[in-house]
Design brief:
- There is one protein chain.
- The chain has 380 residues and is an all-alpha fold.
- The chain has a domain at 47-250.
- It is built from 15 helices and four strands.
- The chain has a two-stranded antiparallel ribbon with strand order 1-4.
- β2 (159-160) and β3 form a beta hairpin.
- α2 (41-66) runs parallel beside α7 and α11 runs parallel beside α15.
- The chain is globular and about 60 Å long.
Length: 380
């Protein structure tokens, strides 16, 4: 087990904890860069979804996990970014300019929506952001001169400085680039006084205000920054789905983003990435199981002569094919995570690391759940 001996305050705000962490992150970077060359093109496209959802998770994690402000309207920011980017591209603007304008517009929208956050907290703020999402969805439907309403808006492949990202592999690297930039920028913000002010507001607004933290400024900045990241994800989202329609950006998508950060682990950028892996890969996993389980059980039933096993496989495939099953599985997993692992997937990963680093001296009581007296004790 490694023990860090700290000799300066700068060690608390380093990008990497030590050289060992830097080595493992560097190895992870090499694996991610080389991944498209060793997996099928279909899985390259699905991994691009992971990167886009990770951007969305970082956006909502800043607001929910680090500032303590609950939002049920982040799908609206995603839609604003997607539609703004697609509209500016149709007007003939360069890709980089269209992306920048989409981020600026979404950031401004986030700042405006963040104004009610100065007087609202908890469920009241969630209701306010939910109302904003409903209003924006109506705008997407009615403003046909810009969004084309339910007729939809096609989005071409991204072209940056004459380079067309027309295949899944090139788009994979484009999404990876913006995800790394977002992680680096957010990580630096969290190490700066801004991030420390956000965490202080999350733990106790009264204590933060008594120590000189301007609640109005930092809450508004948290909303604006979170919306800006969501607008960036929206631009990539538009290219990924290639056709925008108002019924995509519903309240269910906002709830899915909230599920992402809770399952991944609140108060952690790692949790945003873990949650994105879960949310992005669960639907294709269900589709694979829906096709493979009946076939494999049917083959087993044929070889063994057990007909009930084949009928059981057909029943399982029919059940997984029902439209509400995916949402039901999401809800069931959310309940199980809240009951069994409140710290999420990243919390479980920390426990696994501690188990192997302290083996055979590991004790089950290390992570025994105790009564929490402050919100910060639940978001370590």
């Amino acid at each position: 087990m490694r023990f860090l001996f700290k000799t300066s305050y700068e060690q608390d705000i380093r990008l990497f904890r030590d050289r060992v962490d830097a080595f493992w992150y560097g190895l992870l970077a090499l694996l991610v860069v080389g991944l498209p060359f060793v997996i099928d093109e279909y899985y390259v496209g699905e991994t691009s979804w992971v990167f886009i959802y990770a951007l969305c998770g970082i956006s909502l994690m800043v607001l929910v996990g680090y500032t303590g402000l609950v939002s049920l309207g982040h799908a609206a920011f995603l839609g604003i970014g997607a539609y703004a980017h697609a509209y500016f591209l149709q007007q003939g603007l360069p890709w980089v300019v269209a992306m920048a304008l989409a981020v600026v517009i979404t950031t401004a929208a986030g700042f405006v929506v963040g104004l009610p956050a100065l007087r609202m907290t908890g469920i009241y703020l969630a209701i306010a952001t939910l109302a904003f999402a409903v209003i924006i969805q109506e705008v997407f439907t009615r403003w046909e001169s810009v969004t084309h309403g339910f007729a939809g808006m096609p989005v071409d492949k991204p072209t940056i400085f004459g380079l067309v990202f027309e295949d899944d592999r090139s788009f994979y690297y484009l999404c990876l680039f913006f995800l790394v930039v977002a992680l680096w920028l957010t990580r630096n913000l969290l190490r700066a006084p801004t991030g420390r002010a956000w965490i202080a507001i999350r733990d106790s607004e009264i204590a933060a205000q008594s120590m000189g933290v301007n609640l109005a400024i930092y809450k508004s900045f948290a909303f604006a920054y979170s919306a800006g990241l969501m607008g960036l994800a929206g631009a990539l989202f538009a290219h990924k789905i290639a056709y925008l329609a108002p019924d995509i950006f519903t309240i269910l998508l906002s709830i899915q983003f909230l599920l992402l950060v809770i399952v991944g682990g609140l108060g952690s950028l790692h949790g945003a990435v873990f949650g994105a892996i879960f949310v992005a890969l669960l639907p294709p996993l269900i589709a694979i199981l829906r096709d493979s389980i009946p076939e494999s059980l049917a083959n087993f039933a044929t070889t063994t002569g057990l007909a009930p096993i084949g009928s059981l496989g057909a029943a399982i495939g029919a059940f997984l094919a029902k439209p509400g099953v995916e949402a039901g599985i999401f809800g069931l997993i959310l309940v199980l995570v809240i009951l069994l692992e409140p710290l999420g997937m990243y919390g479980r990963w920390l426990k696994i690391k501690l188990f192997f680093s302290t083996f055979p001296m590991y004790k089950k009581a290390t992570f025994r759940r105790q009564k929490s007296y402050m919100r910060s004790e639940r978001l370590r």
